[in-house]
Amino acid sequence: MIPIYTVEEARQSILRRDSALEPDVPAAVRDSLRRIFGADITPAAAVAQILADVRARGDDALLEWTRRIDGVALPGVVVDPAEIRAAPAALPPGLWDALCLAAGRIRAFHALQPVQSWTTDTLGGRLGQRVSPLGRVGVYVPGGTAPLPSSLLMSAIPAQVAGVAEIVVATPPGRDGRVPPVILAAAAAVGIETVYPLGGAQAVAALAFGTATIPRVDKIVGPGNLFVTLAKQQVFGLVGIDGLNGPTETVIIADETANPGWLAADLLAQAEHDPLATAILLTPSAALAVAVQAEVARQLEGLSRDRIIAVSLAGRGGIVVTADLAQAAALADDFAPEHLCLATREPRALAESLRQAGGLFFGEHSFEVLGDYVAGPSHTMPTGGTARFASPLNVLDFVRITSLIDLDAGTMAELAPAAALLAQAEGLTAHAAAAERRVRP
């Protein structure tokens, strides 16, 4: 059952932000860490130990940690490219076409993003920016309870559009030590030929540090569990990252015109990701709140991940009855969700008051599941309230910008005295001298 809250109750519970990197660690996770490491250890300390070991021992450490954590004895740390090429033929009917449809829309969307070098001569000489792609990018694709080929497409295609020379994938192996065919087929759909059957912190370590078999990358992108996120945090600086993505989240604002059955389906779809996923409905209609609550209970029966959904809805989900749509919008904007869906009579008008969300979904035909797979924008979006300052994964994540400074003699002579004065004010006399020497009679 999804609970119904007042606004004040929600502010003290589901709308309150906690750190995604300092969650309450479930007893099962604590027990697993104790079994693997032989002592009580925090997730951050466990990640630090894995990173240090992979950095020191390379491939041997990767194989050992995969055996200890995943219970899998890998024959090697690279998937045979022949498996990737053969994967599409192993898919159920229609799935390859769906992957290709999604890939085509994602590529077409990101190809429209304006990313280009520029120069100007209006400021004296020539100034500008040179935009160039990163050389090598590692895409982490979550596995665990379910393989996510969509995450491969959503991360790799913007990198390809940016012109990244080499893109590799790391993803957890199954119990048989092999990468699920649907992940390999997604790699084949976008022409990726290098896949590493590695998950967790050890995968991040391999991509960040490199080993005898795996060259290090310039940037690591893609969502993952707590251990992946902690590992990305700890290697940042040595390697770039896209962000520290926590559990996924959706907020829906709905009025009395919304379809309660559709809203319930959308909440259930969000909650099935993870026990820590957030699925929240904000509505001024008490009648709609009750109808959606009943629909959630009815539709939950028979879903394959019903236990995960139940935990998610009880702990992180809920329906909040607001005074009006304006209050619902203010609550949503303050929460700054990953996905913000507007199931109202006039969604575009409501959107004018909203500034902070990873993605805005207008109307009930633009439901969030389409964004997960085939709409076009990357589904890797800022979570945990980071939409206040962060953006969805896009082409700019895969380029570097170099400033171009090519001044002429006249502009130099005009600017140098001001530079010298500013340097003197900062106590940097060598800086001042370097400017003064250019213009001293």
How would you characterize this protein structure?
- The chain is built from 18 helices and 14 strands.
- Helix 15 (347-351) links the parallel strand 12 (339-343) and strand 13 (359-362).
- The strands form three sheets. It has a six-stranded parallel beta sheet with strand order 1-11-10-9-12-13, with helices on both faces. Strands 6-5-4-7-8 form a five-stranded parallel beta sheet, sandwiched between helices.
- It has helices at 7-11, 27-37, 43-57, 59-70, 81-86, 95-111, 149-162, 181-189, 200-209, 226-235, 260-271, 286-300, 306-315, 325-335, 347-351, 368-373, 409-425, 429-439; strands spanning 4-6, 118-120, 126-133, 136-140, 166-170, 195-196, 219-221, 240-241, 249-254, 278-283, 318-321, 339-343, 359-362, 399-406.
- The relative contact order is 0.14.
- The chain has three domains: 4-19 and 247-375, Nitrogenase molybdenum iron protein domain (Rossmann fold); 21-244 and 388-404, 3-Layer(aba) Sandwich (Rossmann fold); 407-439, no CATH class.
- It has 441 residues and is of the alpha/beta class.
- One of its GO terms (cellular component) is cytosol.
- This is Histidinol dehydrogenase.
- The active site is at residues 338-339.
Describe this structure in a few short sentences.
By secondary structure, the chain is of the alpha/beta class.
